[in-house]
Fold this sequence. Notes:
The complex is a heterodimer.
Chain A (H helix, E strand, L loop, with lengths): L2 H15 L16 H13 L4 H14 L19 H7 L7 H13 L32 H13 L6 H12 L13 E2 L2 E2 L4 H11 L9 H10 L6 H13 L7 H10 L1 H4 L4 H12 L24
Antiparallel strand pairs in A: 1-2
Helix pairs in contact in A: 1-2, 1-13, 2-3, 2-4, 2-13, 4-5, 4-6, 6-7, 6-8, 8-9, 8-10, 10-11, 10-13, 11-13
Chain B lengths: L1 H8 L3 H20 L11 E7 L7 H11 L4 H4 L3 E6 L15 H13 L4 E6 L7 H7 L2 H8 L3 E3 L5 E5 L9 E5 L7 E11 L3 E3 L11 H4 L4 H5 L2 H12 L3 E11 L7 E11 L2 H12 L7 H6 L11 E5 L2 H4 L19
Parallel strand pairs in B: 1-11, 2-3, 2-7, 3-4, 7-9
Antiparallel strand pairs in B: 1-10, 5-6, 7-8, 9-10
Amino acid sequence: MTSGSLKRMIREELSRRSLPKGGITDLPGQEFRTDATAWGILAFGAAGEDSENLERHRGRLVQEQDKAGRLCIDQQHPDSYWPTALAILAWQSSASSHEAQNRAIRFLIDTTGLHRPRQWFDAAGHDPLLKGWPWIDGTHSWIEPTALNVLSLKATGHAQHERVLEAIRMILDRQLPHGGWNYGSTYVFGKEHLPMPESTGAALAGLAGMVGQEKVARSLAYLQGETDRLRTPISLGWTLLGLAAWELWPSNGLALVERCLANQSRYGVYDTSALCLLLVGALAGEKGNNVDLLTNSGGRPPALGIS
Amino acid sequence: MAEDKRLQWSVTRRDVLLAAAAGLVIGSGLLLVPKRYFRMPQQAQSFVGSVADYQQDIAGVITRGVDELGILPAELKGKRVLLKPNLVETALGAPHINTHPLVLRGAIEAFLRLGAASVMVAEGPGHRRDTLAVYEESGLAAVLTEDRIPFHDLNYISGYDLPNAGRQSSMRTLTFPALFKEVDWIVSVAKMKTHHWAGATLSMKNLFGVMPGIYYGWPKNVLHAAGIQNSILDINATLKPHFAIVDGIVGMEGDGPIMGDPKRVGVLVMGRNLPAVDATCCRIMGIDPYKVSYLERADNWLGPVSEAAIEQRGESIPSVRTNFNLIETIPAHQGLRLA
């Protein structure tokens, strides 16, 4: 397996999942989904797809954006706005999506999860006051949506925004003492919870370029120790992206991706978002594959005048 | 006449005020009486099957349970059955976190033997977004692949809304997987565990995992924000699952649902009515089901919790009861112990 064959696979597989008027389905022949479309655009972009096709899919995401600037999993469920960060990334470098992207950025900057000061009786170990972002409106901040939003804001030049800086502190606060992250729970009733590769990979990608390596050394070691046993696309995809962000992409990465792709005979055809995450993670091991949005992009100039 | 007048005047303003105050006190007192005392009593059956370990004939025990619970062959013949296990996360050396894959295999064999047209397994873990990783690492993938049984990830699946029939939380609607429209029986195949927020997690709490993560987040944040106990009741009242099987062959005691210790009980508990099944499980665990808030509130609404109202089939509760370790520093465990 080479990066050339991966790019061909992306183009062929996503063409089967593309809708004629723009938008990408969750599985071949199934329904449009916002996150699948955003991930599809990111994978198509990494595979060098022509810009006309990309713009068609980006245009579909613009249609899905609501007045508040958010993109939800579907329009019937406006609280589920976690795909907004993915759309911001998918719209990057697209002049026609610039306005929509700015509205989405403004939405994220102005939105937070539920937070409160720590109480003496709290059973959980983390600081509930530190703001990140939730998966769903009206709930607490958790690791993966926060990491995704940090990635999207870094990519659009807002790495030094106070919301990003607080989110970085929030991610570090949720890091497990023995290394790694899970969905965002460190201790409960005095017991340290277990790390998860997908959460750890996303957190490391979010933190890259923002903190020194010594702050995440245990987490990098945890993730490197997990890599060889990973067989599923979400875990392996985020692991490859997280390690690539710290220039630790594994030498056997492509073999692991090949094994994971072959496992579709066992698990069934992969959901588009999971498949694209895996393939983008696979391409992250080679420079020049246009996946830096997800691996390290802290230093770009701001797209908006948001401070 | 004079006596009548005296009687008439004997009801003073003070008396009226006293009577009103007494009425208020009685009325307020009635408000404090649990709602279950004002409901029509319900009846149900639950079956406790003895299964020493996972190598035993689990399909045989489930088949016997279904028969003893009076489920007629016509109720299952040609039906599409969905089994919902309890897959949370995995940890080396901790298979007791999740429903054992051989219990799923036993249930599949039993339902097919009883005439079901098809059986599928579906789950949307609350902690891990990578459902397939839990599916693989729990050992379930190996079993279902060998048995050629489909598995569905309920976290990434389109949903349909139903009005919240439970109305215990502020959620006006609940979003269930569209896949549920294609099945006839939904079976909660849960694990017998203590739970540090809910007291115990059994067949009712297991249904958190049917709520798709793409709409509810991880760890099913919306349900936590709406109140765990409220959400358990709302999901059960709205979905109305058809059957429950609880894997108590090896359960979890202490700091469940993930950090606790294995507890060998050697039973499968099953029945049509989930509160009744869970109440039976609690008694086996040495937990007073009336001290588990969602069960107390479900009593005689979603099903009976009283021991007298649950007709026990199979093994008796005292013959299999083994007290699960409870942690007194965990508020949800305090006062749970069954006398």
